[in-house]
Task: structure prediction
Amino acid sequence: MVSNRQTRCDRTCPARADIPARRSSFRLLAAIGMSLGLAPVRTWAQQPAYEAMLLSCIDPRFVDPVHIYMNARGLEGKYSQFTIAGAAIAVEANAFAAWRQTFWDNLATSIELHKIKKVIAIDHRDCGAARIAYGLQSVANASAETDTHKRVLASFRQDVQRRYPGVRVETGLMALDGSIEMFI
Result:
């Protein structure tokens, strides 16, 4: 009975029927890539250990500055990344409580797969998520904005360290010009 289902599926599911052809195509593409000097595709068992996981915001104004910052630290190609509106605010604020578990599941996966030992969380100034989560007064001026992010990032650091005592946490607040203030 099982083999009949399998045979029927092979006839009715084109994706299964052409597996040998797809494997041949993959081997051919892999050979071409290697001949061009491209790195071979890694399997799950060959996943590299990364130095860190980066938590950053989706705001397009900060994508390149955050990347430049990480490269300047010598971390290019050495970190996994989780990007969500508000960065640490998304993990800590009640307004985004439904998003929390997604971050924690992703961090657990990065620890398991990539053997990360550090989380780097970068919030940014002029953050709409901070305004949504904590109100206009929380970002009314530079001092209030800094205090809000410091508080959130300190709470984030404590939560990571409570869940994963062996993982170090670095937190920072990036300005619109790409400069960053790191908090300890």
The longest helix spans residues 142-163.
